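I am still getting used to backbone structure tokens and would like to learn alongside you. Label the sequence line and the structure token line clearly, so we can match residues to local backbone shapes. Go ahead whenever you are ready, and we will take it from there:
>
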Amino acid sequence: MPSRTDQRAGLAYGLAAYTMWGLLPLYWHLLSAAAPSEILAHRMLWSLPVALVILAALRRWSWIRPLMRQPKRLALVLACTVVISLNWFLYIWAVNSGHVLEASLGYFINPLVSIAFGVLVLRERLRPLQWAAVGVGAVAVVVMTLAYGRMPWIALGLALSFATYGLMKKGIKLDGIEGFSAETTLQALPALGFLIYLSVSGQSVFVSGGTGQALLLVGCGVATAIPLICFGASAMRLPLTTIGMLQYLAPTFQFLLGLTVFHERMPAERWAGFALVWAALVVLTWDALRTARRGRAALAEARARAGEAVAAEAARATRTGLAPADPAAGEAGGQAEPGPVRP
């Protein structure tokens, strides 16, 4: 079990990661002169050197050769790369097109979509409160469809793409920095080719936008990698229930930015849709905390019973003057004198 110092450090890392993810709209807004496709290409390209520096610092190269020998895992990495690239593009486009609130909705409903995938794809069984949360989330989507006058496709696209990405990552079995490095390696060459095309055709903001824009575009790699590093450090130190609650920070920050910085409209019917989503997340979080608490209580009870059994055996051995039974003793010494039978 992590020490209190580790838990405090994990909480600090988690808060930093989700805060930075929540404030990313401010960064993408600074790059609004560039097309979302160019921002995406720079994010892909400049993430690779950051990943290589981290791998070199940690000396984490041993995973590469086994991965190269497994075509199925490589295909999954490629699929993950395509899906997360679509997610990144949609998010950047949404922010720079004035849809920050709808983008935040996507990440609010993402846990509900992940649960639905668990049922439909992995055949997982849901607890009653999880079913209730998913049902309330479905009603929220209907309400938001009526509120927007259309299907909230930006929110659904972000939620579905990120949930799909998480589902496929289960089959790859690479940790955060390894998966990030593998994906950015596959992204870098197409991104470089696209950026060369923009430069040759005179459409590149990196070339024509001045030093400030160029530095901001290069910084996309750092803006992508640092929150991921903090998240990895947090995940190693905190239980999943705590991580699950922290994940709501990012869309909360995005929601607040949409209201206060970007001044997007929020009529009453949209408030109703968001309120339903938040209610579903409250139910989901409460159920997760209750289940985790019951699990810890069951584990403590099992340990207590094991301790009582050991103590009872020791007491019985003391009364009879025999040592506690050791299965290995009979194998090592041939015909051993029978001892007390374990309960």
